[in-house]
Amino acid sequence: MLIADCFHAKRFYFNINSITRINQYRTFIMLKIFVTILVLYLLYVALLFCFQRSLLFPGQYIKPPNILIENNDYIQQVWLETSFGKVEAWFSRANRVENIRNTSLILAHGNYELIDYCIEELLMYKELGIHVLLVEFPGYGRSEGSPSQKTVTETFVKAYDWLIENCGMDENSIIVHGRSVGGGAVCALANERKVKAIILQSTFTSVTQFTNRYLVPGFLVKDTFDNLSVVKSFDGPILIFHGKYDEVIPFQNGKQLYENSKNAQFIAYNCNHNDFPPNRDIYWDTIRIFLDRILEDSLSKN
What we know:
The chain has helices at about 1-55, 120-125, 150-165, 180-190, 210-215, 225-235, 250-260, 280-300; strands at about 75-80, 85-90, 105-110, 130-135, 175-180, 195-200, 240-245, 265-270. By secondary structure, the chain is of the alpha/beta class.
């Protein structure tokens, strides 16, 4: 009996020891998996941090088309002198002589475009009686430098100052229009200089809110472009366009910008990001009505 008890006790000891080793092994494997996942995640975050400006400004890699602007009859090629080099801009005067207010518009395109692609907007605004300045992003097309919130802001401030100094404009005669990331550019300008009105098309509240999509912390964003803060403090009229089915910059962004602005009009279209607008005639008619209302309000105040 005593021998049997000793045998069972020894067997029980070995069972406990085996279970302990198995649990230790499982813990080791789980810890190893956790460390591997953590290392891979940190590498992923490091890569995103290093290449985030390539994601935000992919148009810097587009080869510009061969377009001769220097001797063009209706477009003046302008080179803006910045701290990091020369940035290209195109200026064109309004077609309508009756443009009493002598109003100019600064246009900022999307992140995968060049000013070369914005001829339609230039021509349409000219027909509406508005002088137009298309401003390139640093590092895009034929321009020097590299794109960032700092360099983009400096460029658009230089463009604004060029209009004031060379075209007889004043702070009450400049409107800005930004598409997609271009909305960040014109909001950054409106935060530095006084503008008459803002037109935002398919733009975001802030770049930081996209970090949820990439599963990274917001503090790692280099170029936040906090448009929401700008529209909150802007007293002038704002026209906001956004597609209901926008998958690049979700519809909620436009809606939130509108809800936090003091004096905004919100237009929602049944479209995505890259097929905006679904009807160009309605789109430009909306802009015309918005501009007419601005000019009428200015005339009545004077």
